[in-house]
Design goal:
10 helices, homodimer, mainly alpha, DNA-binding
DNA sequence: TTCGTACGTTGTACGTCGTACGGCGTACGA
DNA sequence: TCGTACGCCGTACGACGTACAACGTACGAA
């Protein structure tokens, strides 16, 4: 609407990311985005080839926010930092979660990060094959965890409990029969989650360390 | 088009899944789906509340294809089977990947599976907290891995290599300077992947075992 | 100063989407 | 036989991505 200066790819992408953060990815519409830039919808096409390329550009800006690991220093600590940094970036930009691992048209920031991670692992003594595996395991976990977090809407799993009860209820099962039909689910829902709310950062680091420790044991092995 | 019998929720969902498998999730349109059923678009609304509910129903059909773990038998073997079964289901229905871990409105098959997994873990000696953690770690990995696989388009990473080169090229960097700018990436791309093509099933099981073994060590511990 | 050219911008328009609404036929209990 | 309820669908509306052609304006050459 208001801030009409000269358009540019930079400005378009920045505004698009901000809009997606504010109102979700489905709010990022060519018309809507152009409005926010004080421009007409078609003007965007002179700075971005189309909607798909716009999304790609947005994703690469998220990649650029991720702290790459340094080749000097303990590989495990570096990988840990990279993982936490990635989670934080995905936390700031949840709309990016399903889009970052699509290897088609990787942006420059994506490439730089890949390079840094591979270098860190190789210099720590992993073979090429093992480095690829180690990278894949970590990323699968990180992005998968982010997927779960996004699905939970950043609340604890209390909402899940609520919805689950409702769901079970409308399956013409009484609410206290939840415990009869799904006793273990009920145990988790009632006992664990509702109380101390399942700290998400801790849970993430727990799984991360399981993986990192597992990889440590395999470093330098045959495989 | 052709097969016009009586419509039903069952038939609608089955056709929707088949259509998504055949031509991708973006082909699943109310009109397109109705055509395939030999019906008009608006007829679907008498068997499904709307597009969102349709997607939810499709996802729960995928959940129903996953083999739940049995409470009898080695927990690790059961979890392993469950994980492989999940990967296979996601492989058959790649469009489901980003949608299955959304805890909003879980379907009956989703609930049954959750129950079975939690039961298996609890009876193997995991505390409630540890069972939740263990579940979370596994699912994050499984879904994250599926995400990566989907992004690769089920080819090997050769395509990535190709696209990466192109990308680097159009960043006004000569093609053989790829190795200069991203030596470790080039090492992977040229050396490892192109040759024996990075067997995806093996890679999945590798990471899975890293996690499962890590969890084994933690079973029954304090935490 | 004038003018040709190139480029950023935009209004309009087309085809597609999800779906609200109201009318249509038909099967079935009274 | 007929009223009613329900499965079905044609039409229409607003929003989407974007092709296209017209418009303004900045700027180097004359």
């Amino acid at each position: 609407m208001a801030p009409s200066a000269r358009l540019s790819r930079e400005r378009v992408l920045r505004e698009a990311v901000a809009l997606a953060d504010r109102e979700g990815i489905e709010a990022v519409t060519m018309r809507r985005l152009a409005d926010g830039l004080g421009a007409g919808a078609m003007s965007l096409y002179h700075h971005v080839p189309g909607k798909d390329a716009l999304l790609d550009g947005m994703v690469d800006r998220v990649f650029a926010e991720i702290e790459p690991p340094s080749p000097n220093g303990d590989w495990k600590a570096e990988m840990r930092r990279r993982a936490l940094s990635t989670r934080e970036a995905l936390h700031r930009h949840p709309w990016a979660v399903g889009r970052m691992e699509s290897t088609k048209t990787p942006g420059p920031a994506d490439l730089r990060l890949h390079e840094a991670v591979l270098r860190c692992l190789r210099e720590a003594g992993f073979s090429v094959e093992m480095a690829v595996q180690a990278y894949s395991v970590q990323d699968a976990y990180i992005y998968g965890y982010a997927l779960q977090e996004r699905g939970m809407g950043y609340a604890t799993q209390e909402q899940f409990a609520e919805t689950a009860s409702q769901r079970v209820e409308q399956m013409d099962t009484a609410i206290e029969e939840l415990a009869r039909a799904y006793p273990y689910l009920a145990e988790v829902v009632a006992g664990h989650v509702a109380q101390h709310g399942h700290n998400l950062s801790e849970a993430f680091e727990f799984g991360l360390d399981v993986i990192l420790d597992g990889l440590e044991r395999l470093r330098g092995d045959g495989v």
